[in-house]
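Listing S7. Sequence submitted for prediction.
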Amino acid sequence: MPAWVTVKDASNKITQNIVTASVDKGEASAIALALEESNALLILDDKKARRLAKSLNLKHTGTMGILVDAKLSGHLQSIKPVIEKVRNTNFHISAELERKMLMLSGEIKE
């Protein structure tokens, strides 16, 4: 694991268990930790988890949002090749979302 990555568990397991009733264990753990940390940014791709995060007023984005931010901040030259790699996994991205991300990153025009 890279040195800049810190692994941290939520300390309130009761909250985590309650959230697990709505979303899977991984997302529940992330949401429970975000409730404990100020200014946390959750990276969630699951629709149900994103709805829950929004209802709890938690700042969140998805994998595609991270890619757009990386492009706009100069960490990636292009997100299109990364999206292609992501498509070759079991991660689903609609053509509409891909187009939106390419527009937001400035790689295509409307």
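Caption to Listing S7: primary sequence and predicted structure tokens for the chain studied. Strands lie at 42-43, 60-61. The chain has two domains: 13-61, 63-104.
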